[in-house]
Amino acid sequence: MTERTVRQALHLYVSGRVQGVGFRDFTRSQARRLAVTGWVRNLSDGRVEIWAEGEPQALSAFVEQVRRGPRAARVTDVRMEQATPGGYADFEVRHG
């Protein structure tokens, strides 16, 4: 019998200079590299919202990358909440 991998989910809100600097594309690139699924979108208040699902080690590495952001970004805060995985198959940039 094989051991089933445990997937977890995180709901993140990222503050700072995170819009207009390629943050969503950077996030999608890092998620796909780390086999994290979910989505990212800009919020009207200037923050970025992320839903991320994956194995614990992958999520930890993903959050580390989100805290760093792309070169032009300046992340000042990342708020995280544990969530229940929704079964996303890919990672997408959402608009609107």
Automatic annotation (TrEMBL):
InterPro entries: Acylphosphatase, Acylphosphatase-like_dom, Acylphosphatase-like_dom_sf, Acylphosphatase_CS
Keyword Metal-binding applies: no
Coiled coil: none
Catalytic residues in the record: R24, N42
Pfam family, one: Acylphosphatase
Signal peptide: none
Catalytic activity as recorded in UniProt: an acyl phosphate + H2O = a carboxylate + phosphate + H(+)
Domain of life: Bacteria
Acylphosphatase-like domain location: 9-95
PROSITE patterns: ACYLPHOSPHATASE_1, ACYLPHOSPHATASE_2, ACYLPHOSPHATASE_3
Keywords: Hydrolase
Keyword Hydrolase: yes
Enzyme Commission code(s) on record: 3.6.1.7
UniProt cross-references to NCBIfam families, sorted A to Z: PRK14442.1
Family recorded in the similarity comment: Belongs to the acylphosphatase family.
PANTHER family found in the cross-reference section: ACYLPHOSPHATASE
Annotated protein name in UniProt: Acylphosphatase
